[in-house]
Amino acid sequence: MAAVNSPIKVLLVGTGALGSIYAWRLDVSGKAHVTTVCRSNYEAVKKDGFRINSLAFGDEVYRPHNVVRTVAEAVADGEIYDFVIVCTKALPNLVDSSDIIAPAVRDPRTIIMLIQNGIGIEGPYAARYPNNPIVSTVAYLDSSQPSSGTINHGVVTLLDMGLFSPTTANYNVGSVAARVEELGEMWRDNGVHVLISEDIQKSRWAKLVWNASFNTVSVVSGGNDTRQMLDSAECKALIRSLMVEIIKAGETVTGSKLVYLGGFEKPDDIINNTDMLPKPVTPSMLMDFRAKRPMEHAVILRNPIELAKKHGVEVPHLETVYALLTMVENRYLTQSKL
Amino acid sequence: MAAVNSPIKVLLVGTGALGSIYAWRLDVSGKAHVTTVCRSNYEAVKKDGFRINSLAFGDEVYRPHNVVRTVAEAVADGEIYDFVIVCTKALPNLVDSSDIIAPAVRDPRTIIMLIQNGIGIEGPYAARYPNNPIVSTVAYLDSSQPSSGTINHGVVTLLDMGLFSPTTANYNVGSVAARVEELGEMWRDNGVHVLISEDIQKSRWAKLVWNASFNTVSVVSGGNDTRQMLDSAECKALIRSLMVEIIKAGETVTGSKLVYLGGFEKPDDIINNTDMLPKPVTPSMLMDFRAKRPMEHAVILRNPIELAKKHGVEVPHLETVYALLTMVENRYLTQSKL
């Protein structure tokens, strides 16, 4: 029996290199209407849509169902969204991003999906919207936005998602899970690799193994790509030490082994895998550093460090890198350059 | 009974902001003839001498007994030196400075005095000149060389010196000690505060408490003076952690409490003392970084870390900062800038 459903209404906040691909793969399903909140690229996208060049899906101009500048604009006509998907960078030290979506979370059925890196990203949303389901999602995606509205994408599309703290939920977990599954199915139908995880925190910590090491060190070492980092024995040893600390912290905090999507579980394997890539990787944090943008150190380092210490895990290498990273950022965000 | 002695012959290698002051205070005694090996400032000093502005000793043009470009030139006329004093930066990872003085160490009575920072500086000299006494010396001096041959000096003059490994010496320790005391007395007569220490390593480690923390962090944090470092709670905590590790390592390696000349023994006291200085301090390593000069990380971090680990002391904060510092240096010494 084919049910005739009205389209799922999705509001996607932060439609850059990452958000645009996931918005596109939903919108093309025809089963979802995606309204994209565009900030820096609004003019370009409103006028010409997203010019997407994707190895996986081909080249296409994607015109979202609706393009707006702000969340307030997205709800000005009284629209109620089934999903609010947050794809902004996680910068809780600078912005309470739970604040930004407030106008669109008027209905307790609205599901908040956070597609962001790091640990502890759900806290501000859970505190502010205790009755709304939160889907914590980890993305692996190889895309970039070389100019406003132009998106380059490779072949990776993975979304790994799970309900945040569903055991204490004020909602029917089964029905929410069904709606998330429905959304996931739309993505899957359009080529996105979607996983639904029981304990998403294990995936979050696993992704952190790379992000809290290569990403952060690339900046505090003075601006180095993966090749340059691994060419220094001391730096390689440091990256390994950071990974060991994250794994120990993650396993202690989550109470079990982490779930590694790449198939590499040991620091040396993760390092060797990076070492053998055909081209050096310029970590995203280094790109932020070079562009003098804020870095995601609160969710990549600060929150994991705090959780680790709360659970009695010593993380001296992480603490050192965190202190230095915030200082480095402070110099370019608030002070004159050297 | 007043003995009529011929002047002590001193060769001083590395006559910059530090070396020039100590050369001057010896040379003015009339009891020593100081030959200064000048590199970058040779032309200026040969022509006009050192133009010294000293709060402690007044303003004076100091013309050394002899000014040469190289150690070879200093011995070209067959001169035998009683003391060879090395005041160069300690960069054993780049230069074997024991090599540089070789032409002047032809006589087993020649005493080698090293006025340098860090740990393990004596090793290459002891290996190469097993029969020569080595006087390991720590200097506290507030001087700078704003332009070639112009030296500004404040009021601090301290030299803390001790024989390196005298228990295994191939020479008469008593007679060497007497000659060192004689040299020290000449300095004292001309206003230099000279201490002779039984175990100079305790002083070296104590000086490292500041150098391995504030100095190194000033660079890897992106270029910050003491005020900027202490204004960040995380950075202050990091500096404290580095100090704790150095003190533990130093106490374990030397087998006893360190000897702090400043009177401050605890990390918090050392930090507070720095915090209360009327002006922020720009650490010397940060000045090297800004001028794209090599940094003394091998003797300030690498050697202490190796010794610590050999003695079973964990030093994760120091290791992290060392890995990053060498990467940062590598970028400006060998690679293009960001």
UniProtKB/TrEMBL annotation, chains A, B:
Domain Ketopantoate reductase C-terminal residue range list: 199-328
Q: List, in alphabetical order, the GO biological process terms annotated in this UniProt record.
A: pantothenate biosynthetic process
Q: Which domain of life is it from?
A: Eukaryota
Alphabetized, the UniProt keywords read:
NADP, Oxidoreductase
What SUPFAM superfamilies does this protein's entry cite? Answer: 6-phosphogluconate dehydrogenase C-terminal domain-like (SSF48179), NAD(P)-binding Rossmann-fold domains (SSF51735)
Give the signal sequence positions.
none
Entry EC no(s)? 1.1.1.169
* Function comment: Catalyzes the NADPH-dependent reduction of ketopantoate into pantoic acid.
Protein's recorded name: 2-dehydropantoate 2-reductase
